[in-house]
Amino acid sequence: MADQTTCFLILHFLSILLLMSCLTTDAKILNITTDQSALLALKAHISYDPHHILTTNWSSSTSVCNWVGVTCGSRHHRVIALNLSNNGLVGTIPPHIGNLSFLVNLTIRNNSFHGSMPNELSHLYRLELLNFGYNEFGGEIPSWIGLLTKLQNLTLVRNNFKGKLSPEIGNLTKLTLLYLGSNNFEGAIPSEIGNLQNLEILSLGCNNFFGTIPLDIFNISTLQSFSVVGNHLSGTLPSDMGHFLPNLEEIFLGMNELSGTIPASISNASQLIKVDLSNNSFSGLIPKTLGNLRLLQLLNLELNNLTIESLELSIFSYFSNNAYLNQLLLSMNPLNGVIPNSIGNLSSFLKTIDLTGCNIKGNIPIDIGNLSRLTYMSLGGNDLAGPIPTTIGRLSMLERLKLFGNRLKGPIPSDVCYLGRLGELFLDGNKLSGQIPESINNLTSLKYLNLAFNQLTSRIPSSLWMLTYLLEVDLSSNSLSGSLSLDIGNMKVLTKLNLSRNQLSGHIPETIGGLISLLNLSLAVNQLEGSIPISFGGLVSLVVLDLAGNNLSGEIPKSLEVLRYLKYLNVSYNKLRGEIPTQGPFVNFSAESFMSNDALCGVVRLNVPTCKDASLGPKKAMGVRILKYVLPTLGLTIFVVSVVLVSRKLHGKKNSKLSNNKDSMPLSTWRRISHQQLLQATEGFSANNLLGEGSFGSVYKGTLLDGTYVAIKVLNLELEGAFKSFDIECEILRHIRHRNLVKVISVCSNIDFKALVLEYMPKGNLEMWLYSNTHSLNMLQRLNIMIDVAAALEYLHLGYSTPIVHCDLKPSNILLDEDMVGHVADFGIAKLVSDGISLTQTMTMATIGYMAPEYGSEGIVSTRGDVYSYGILLMETFTRNKPIDDMFIGEMSLKRLVEESFSLSILEVIDSNLRSNENDYAAMETCLFATMGLALHCCADLPEQRIDIKNVLARLNKIKLKHASNIAGEKQGVDVRNVGNPGFDSLGKSPY
Ligand SMILES: *[C@@H]1O[C@H](CO)[C@@H](O)[C@H](O)[C@H]1NC(C)=O
Ligand SMILES: *[C@@H]1O[C@H](CO)[C@@H](O)[C@H](O)[C@H]1NC(C)=O
């Protein structure tokens, strides 16, 4: 007690001192000259001013009051407002700013200011507006913030502020706007925030706040918008929560750990327009009173444990009075209801309805056709039976229709083909029969078509191949017959075509060589005959080719040797004969690719007899055909690449923010190292020290003179592209530093030798650990590594003024240090993306399987593409399945496998090592459910639907904490330091 009193007294004394110092500074005669020197001090602390705002304009030769961004008061002629928003400035705030004693508004939003807020800011007691949003400030919010009692708007959103929020914030009783979102604040939300009885907007989202939401917040009657989305808040909502919020329009509580029921009193906040309670642990009934919210437009209750009244069962009777409702998101709740015919009475504004995975039974009602504004409808992963009603053809605004994973029967109504705006049609995994409607070519906006796993018969209508903008088509596992149309060659942007497991017959048309964007082609398990067309050499982007289980005869055309991206080939179970080609991708194929054919011959490795000398005749003919089919497409590729190179050059000028600014950047000063020193360090690059080989060269372990271990990445300069890769990697690594990125120690760059000296990572890479036969990672270790990777990505995407896209995330690029901390490596093909928007680039050598669809199809590089790769990586880390594993070629993909596991059992698909090593199945299942849900969110087909990396990190941290607390009491994972290394040398893959 005595201690507390002393403590209080000291604090009190300190604040008096602070106050006094305010008064004394004010007492000093401050005038416009002091203001001028304060602003010149600020100018001196700006290290980069891309638009030369301050350098040209802020000079002593003109009056301060005429400087850009400065406003002076008319009476006293002092600076009252400073606005430097959106100027790309890099710098810090000097203490001199505290002398601008008449300042009322201080706005430096959206620049790159860093450092912490100087204490002298506390002198600005006239401040009403302080906006530091969208900068890179760090440190804590000091308690002196409570002295700025005139503040009405405090905006610190999107910085790196950390620590606890000081309770003194409760002194700012004039505040109307408080934006603290997207920082690293932690600890409890101080209950003093409840004192802010003028607050209109309270935004605390995307931080690490713990504990409960202070009850007093629900008593701030002026509140219009309240967000704590993406924290770790727990506890329940007060049963009277809506009673004192007459002005509340928006409440965002999603992505927390809130539990209990949703109080029926929420509807007393009658002005509510947007309600997001998604991704929590709310249970019990969805309150029917939500239907009283007359103004409601958005209701998001996804990913909870909510149900509806068992007598009622009809979901939409709840919402028939919400006349303005336009987004209704209830997916992943065990609703167990039916869709009543009255669905047609829902708001005519309804645009989005998502009922994925809600255990919905019964039929799809006919009146669904009345929802005429609908653009998105998912009823996937439910238990719906009966036919697809023809009235669906009336939903003329529909862009995405997902009815996959139900028990729908009957034909695909041709009325679906009236949906001229439809971009995605997912009807896979049902019992649909009959034919694919001939009029499908009316779906001129269609990009994704999935009808796999149904009972469709008859031919594939050739009209399908008129939809030349299709990106992915999956018709696998049906009973489709007939031969392939010649028109298939029109599909210039198609990236994935899966027609496997049908009854297709006849020859593969030569025109197939026109599919120049195709990455993945499976025609496996059909009755195709004749030879493999030479024109396959035109499928220049192909990575996966599966022709297994047909009646194909003749030779494997040598033209396939030019397919430089081909990673997987399967021509097993056919009637092929003759020599297996030896060049290009064939160097890497194994016997499994060629099993069970008539008379193939070739190298011993492929388990086929050696070839006898063949005559030259047929080879010559083949040469002519190669010229005819392959060269034109190669020409096109070269043209595309050079166009892109030129546009990159032009673009480079815009990017000069990074490259021409070497002096002002906080560059890590790399020491240069000589070739001679590297020779010594690696014992002359001896094979003993070879760690592995990567796409652009070899990696050696080395010991520097001072004894430190390093990894030395030596570029193979004979490979085309290696120079560029080196430059890109240097350029990128020079600007970045983060605990989860591999650190560069030095570079060695001569005309004929280039090497990067990197931090040595003694525990190898994630790939080795995942696929080791002797070691395995437990849940917590996997979560930790993936959190490390997300942190690295967050830094790349958001930590610097120009976002950096890694472009090649995969397990072999995740390195592990002594403490099993993950470090992202290999920036050989990373991209700087100016303005944060996506940018069309040439197709580089990103790894198939991890590549986002829009990257594969259109070469669009964006941070969202990395998020997609991250999602795949997340799935792989917990399932131990490679995204291009053999098992996925025919009908499945890793993503699909995970999607389906949601309705079956998630434990079915996970790494069996996890099942055998973890004891608490319930905890593991909960954790996996959340993790795989997150992975699917990362892998949304459309980039704009993907979650951003900041939220990925927040959610994964949350999942980890929950898991850790669930298994608390049990062993918390092994001490990683005692774990050996899973065959670091034997895998022969480069960890760098
Ligand atoms: C401001 O005050 C300083 C002395 O404190 C004086 O030298 C200067 O002339 C004053 N400037 C103006 C513009 O009044
Ligand atoms: C300060 O900002 C507020 C809100 O943007 C604005 O209304 C006011 O006019 C500004 N005052 C000055 C002195 O610029």
Task: Provide an overview of this structure.
With 992 residues, this protein is an alpha/beta fold. Among the domains are: 657-759, 2-Layer Sandwich (Phosphorylase Kinase, domain 1); 766-978, Transferase(Phosphotransferase), domain 1, CATH 1.10.510.10. It is 21% helix and 19% strand. Strand 48 and strand 49 (754-759) form a beta hairpin. Helix 9 (779-798) runs antiparallel to helix 11 (863-879), helix 9 (779-798) packs antiparallel against helix 16 and helix 11 (863-879) packs antiparallel against helix 15 (921-938). The chain is globular and about 100 Å long. It binds 2-acetamido-2-deoxy-beta-D-glucopyranose (2 copies).
Give the gist of this structure.
By secondary structure, this protein is an alpha/beta fold.
CATH superfamily of the domain at 766-978: Transferase(Phosphotransferase) domain 1
Q: Could you say what the CATH topology of the domain at 766-978 is called?
A: Transferase(Phosphotransferase), domain 1
Structure summary, number of beta strands:
55
Q: Which stretches of 5+ consecutive residues score pLDDT under 50?
A: 1-27, 615-669, 834-844, 969-992
Report the end-to-end length measured between terminal Cα atoms.
Answer: 57 Å
Ligand types: 2-acetamido-2-deoxy-beta-D-glucopyranose
Structural class: alpha/beta
- Strand fraction equals 15-25%
Shape descriptor reads globular
Sketch the major β-sheet: 22 strands, mixed
CATH class wording of the domain at 766-978: Mainly Alpha
Give the % helix: 10-25%
* Count of separate DSSP helical elements: 16
